[in-house]
Amino acid sequence: MDANLRFWRTEGQIKQAFLLSLALPFVFMNRYTLQSPLTQLVVKKLLPAPLLGLMSAFTVVVVRSPEFENGIEVMDRNGKVVGVSQKAGEKCGEIKRADLEPEIVSSTEETELFYNRGI
Q1: What phi and psi values does residue 81 have, to the nearest 5 degrees?
Q2: Relative to the CA of 75, which of 41, 47, 48, 57 has its CA 20 to 30 Å away?
Q3: Residue by residue, what is the 3-state secondary structure of 51-110?
């Protein structure tokens, strides 16, 4: 699949997830005439965030599943596909703990310095 086409397909799926997670609760509220203040609070404030998270996770699974099964396309500098790497497809989401710990430590130190400035 062309990389440009894949980008637009992915972008479209992300937009759909965002719009569905925000619009779907309002559609149900209007269709079933749920107008109580508690229902409006839940639909307008509490429900969109978890729905957006679930739809985003579903989008990632749908978009990335072919890479896990078929591998990742390896391209040269000009953007031409040279081949497909099955091992890269298996390891694309893998993060080693040794690589992650220094990032966590540095961000924690920066946060402490930011909050304790001027004391």
Answers
A1: -75, 125
A2: 57
A3: HHHHHHHHHHHHHHHHHHHHCEEEECCCCCEEEEEHHHHHHCCCCCHHHHHHHHHHHHHH
- Using DSSP's 3-state secondary structure scheme, residue 37 falls into helix
3-class secondary structure, 8: helix
Neighbours of 23 (CB within 10 A): 12
Does the residue 119 lie in any domain? no
- What pLDDT does 20 receive? 72
Domain count across the chain: 1
- For the chain, the first-to-last Cα distance in angstroms comes to 56
Condensed to tens digits (0 to 9), the pLDDT of residues 45-82 reads 887 788 878 887 887 777 777 777 777 777 777 878 77
Residue 77 domain flag: no
**Residue 102 resides in a domain:** no
pLDDT at position 57: 81
Q: Which domain holds residue 5?
A: 1-66
Instruction: Identify the residue whose tokens are 């397909």.
Output: 9
